[in-house]
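Input sequence (204 aa), recorded before submission:
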Amino acid sequence: DALAEDRPDWLVSADSISFLVPGNLLRLLRRAGAAAVAGGTPPPIEVLGNELCAGESRCGERFVSGGAGYAMHASTVRALLAADRASDPNCLSSAKGAVDIRLARCLATHLNGTVGGKRSRAAHDGCDLFHAYGVVKTARGSGVDDWYLQYKRLAGLGGAVDTCSLSPESVSLHYVEAAEARALWHDLETANAGDAERAPLQEL
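Predicted structure, token format:
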């Protein structure tokens, strides 16, 4: 109903302990939207996020991290919901597993495609913009869980963990509790007071 009334261009999802950088997110979506317009009709699947691949020794299911947050183009959302309403059983409600993996499965079932590749990974200079960890682990580029390293490498993106840190274009952080979120927001407001166009998250 909200999609029908408000006609948004994107739907953004994040956990309750995720922190979004509004200015960076807006710039990312503007760039992605302009690219879609330049390329004509948006592709069936347009999801921006932190790309991972579940599996033991090889890539099994490719998806974008729900914890890191993701943005889905409205055309993808509408196509997915329309197909899901017409399906039996209902994929979104009946699929098992974590929400982000269920979403990837339903996109594959209904839209005949997979999450992944250049249209899914939001990156700047090869580094993720939607981060699956908080400030300290992301800034240091170390201390992340073994499963995350494995899922990144199975997705063919191990270098994004080994060599990347916070980017001036970073869009989100995960595992950010209330006190830390308030401190980050305060610092972003302070940074924006001097430069409304850029909040240098890596310098906060």
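Checked by second reader. The radius of gyration is 17 Å.
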